[in-house]
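Researcher: Please translate sequence to structure tokens.
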Amino acid sequence: MLAFYRMTEEISAISLNSVLGDIDRHEVILEIMEELTKLAAAHIKHMYIFGCDELNADSPCLLLADDPDYIPPTKHQVQLVVDFLMNEKKLTKADIALKLNVSPKNNRTINYWLAENRKENIPYGAWRLLLSMAGLSIDLMHFSDAVKSKILK
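Model: Translation complete:
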């Protein structure tokens, strides 16, 4: 990915005038935006290709935790992502546990999250990281209609 401009001691907002007044900076920002747009489009395609009835790009379990429409994933949705990581990415449950920073010993934590009789949902942070490992999270772009209406005012 393109190198971002060096960070200065102060972080400041970029105004349209400051970008337009500095042609080199403007060109770099446009290149970065173009690359990020291509990556986002490819990522969204992956999310829709992966989609199934139980887990797709419109599933409430993909929303941010503070979104009023967020619903924790079901055991089956967690299972779909774990199966995808094991089948497509060739990870073991122990590999997944290590990446989630939970104990890989006997896969107890992963198996608990997949158990029918579990009492607690998978923690939100672990769920987001699991989704990220599978290429199924798009944290800054996937909002419910209620949140979108506030952001896009």
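Researcher: Any highlights?
Model: The chain has two domains: 16-50, 60-151.
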